[in-house]
TrEMBL record:
UniProt keyword list: Transferase
Compositionally biased tracts (Polar residues): 221-240
Protein name per its UniProtKB record: Putative glucosyll transferase
Span of domain Glycosyltransferase 2-like: 12-141
Coiled-coil intervals, chain numbering: none
Keyword Transferase applies: yes
A GO molecular-function descriptor: transferase activity
Positions of the UniProt region annotated as Disordered: 221-260
PANTHER family attached to this UniProt entry: GLYCOSYLTRANSFERASE, GLYCOSYLTRANSFERASE 2-LIKE DOMAIN-CONTAINING PROTEIN
Length: 491
């Protein structure tokens, strides 16, 4: 292949292995980009299925004359593919963007938007992402005054960088501490030495990328010891990547503040966000809009989502909790029971506010786990973790365990109670005990109780049972961002 310097604005680096179920949608999403000045470098990494056959045919149809297709006879892994196939082609484009063969772009103007950033002098540009299960990614802006290696992993999808920066990365940065090619955490191994060299980066706070977390061949789905989207091998490889010495900084920041694109909820809404709303449908558009507003108003929310664990709350669910917390008072007292995901979201929402969050746990293990997540996310302000015992509580014909609330004291009243039992060890019946067990601690002037049971049928049953024995309460199913049960009392 004859290389022509800067023959395209963007070189899209795609690697794929055994993802025949997803590669059609992935390439189709790329073909909808409004930036035509791109070239696709597609690597079939020795797939055992028809990934390569499907991709080769689609590339010819969708990107005639604008693609390079390579099939490896042996599995390389993304890091070796970067070294063997991407690095020799850095002079083909101004910037490189990384899109895996099982993922999709959901904002058709994002490459065009990134191209404007590179024209203005940026060296690394990235966005946030959602998962195919509705989860929200934890990406965010980096402080140019600190080494990127000290700020955690905030630049995963959709990641792009000025192509010439890759020329300066030694081969060893794509290998672990034993000298083997990274086979996991390859995105981190690529991003860190790129970020080392420059402080001219920009985070665009939109969800432009859909990460297919449900792919059964993904590392985190093959490892029962995975933590969220990270398998044990990814964690080990990430440690090796972060431990490497930073490359010399050659392009310092043009300003002292992190560059973050303006959130798209003002009257000056960029055209790419409007296009995204059309492209992904009204439901996803509302999620994207809520995400942009929340990230702008609550920067620590990204840190909270990073430590939230499996199935983090969606932006619309967090928006509903925000409204429930501050809808009646600007100084809410909040009680949380259950899954860490909602506790972390609440901690972010009250950060810097004159509000309190009390988290009730029934085992030392729950206390330790929750405290570690708060520390990891940097969210300890206004938080009280209370260890109590599991009590056997009865309500009508239902008997199950629930935290013993007697340690709180009846004089303590809460404006908002969140009971989140999804993905917890609580039995399903525990959800039916939330309102009767906490009735004496609900603010008489007005309160909201948000219940996430393990399934909708249990939430509907709770509403029916509680309505039959209470007066003056209002019950709304699916009112917490399209999920859960909302109970409202008082004025």
């Amino acid at each position: 292949m004859t290389k022509i310097a800067n023959e395209a604005k963007a070189l899209i680096f795609m690697t794929a292995r055994d993802c025949e179920m997803y590669v059609r949608q992935s390439l189709a999403s790329l073909s909808r980009q409004t930036l035509d000045d791109l070239h696709v470098l597609f690597i079939d990494d020795c797939s055992k299925d028809d990934t390569g056959i499907i991709a080769a045919a689609l590339l010819g149809d969708l990107f005639p004359g604008r693609h390079t297709f390579i099939r490896n006879d042996a599995q390389f892994g993304k890091s070796r593919n970067v070294w063997e196939h991407l690095r020799p082609r850095t002079d083909m484009a101004e910037f490189i963007a990384v899109l895996d063969g099982d993922d999709q772009l959901i904002m058709p103007t994002i490459l065009e938007r990134m191209s404007r950033s590179y024209a203005s002098g940026q060296d690394v540009v990235w966005t946030n992402f959602i998962t195919d299960g509705g989860g929200l990614g934890g990406n965010g802006a980096l402080d140019p005054n600190l080494s990127p290696r000290r700020q955690g992993w905030k630049t995963s999808h959709f990641f792009s960088f000025r192509a010439s920066l890759l020329d300066n990365v030694p081969e060893g940065y794509f290998q672990d501490n034993d000298g083997h090619w990274f086979m996991a955490a390859c995105d981190i191994a690529l991003a860190l030495p790129i970020l080392d060299q420059t402080r001219r980066y920009e985070f665009i706070p939109v969800n432009a990328h859909c990460y297919t977390a449900s792919n059964p061949y993904s590392h985190h789905n093959l490892d029962p010891q995975s933590r969220g989207l990270n398998s044990t091998s990814q964690q080990r490889s990430a440690q090796d990547a972060f431990s490497k010495p930073p490359l010399p900084l050659t392009r310092p920041a043009q300003s002292t503040a992190p560059r973050v694109a303006a959130p798209a909820f003002t009257s000056n809404r960029p055209s790419d966000v409007v296009s995204a709303a059309v492209a992904v449908g009204s439901a996803d558009a509302w999620q994207a809009t809520a995400s942009e507003i929340l990230v702008a108003g609550y920067p620590t929310l990204l840190d909270a989502q990073c430590a939230a664990g499996r199935d983090p709350l969606t932006p619309i669910q967090i928006w509903a909790l925000r409204r429930a917390a501050f809808g009646r008072t600007d100084r809410p007292n909040i009680l949380h029971i259950g899954a860490p995901r909602s506790a972390l979201a609440l901690a972010s929402l009250i950060s810097g506010q004159d509000a309190g969050l009390n988290c009730l746990c029934i085992t030392p293990e729950q206390v330790g786990d929750l405290e570690a997540r708060f520390i990891t996310s940097g969210l300890m302000e206004g938080i009280s973790i209370i260890e109590t015992e599991a009590a056997n509580v009865s309500f009508e014909d239902v008997s199950a365990i629930f935290p013993d609330t007697r340690q709180i004291g009846e004089e303590v009243k809460f404006d908002l109670v969140v009971v989140d039992l999804q993905n917890t060890s609580y039995p399903a019946e525990s959800a039916l005990l939330a309102l009767p067990a906490l009735a004496s601690n609900l603010a008489p002037t007005g309160f909201s109780l948000c219940l996430f049971a393990q399934d909708r049928a249990t939430e509907a049953l709770a509403a029916q049972r509680w309505a039959s024995v209470s007066a003056g309460l209002k019950f709304s199913l699916d009112a917490i961002g399209g999920s859960g049960l909302m109970v409202v009392g008082g004025r």
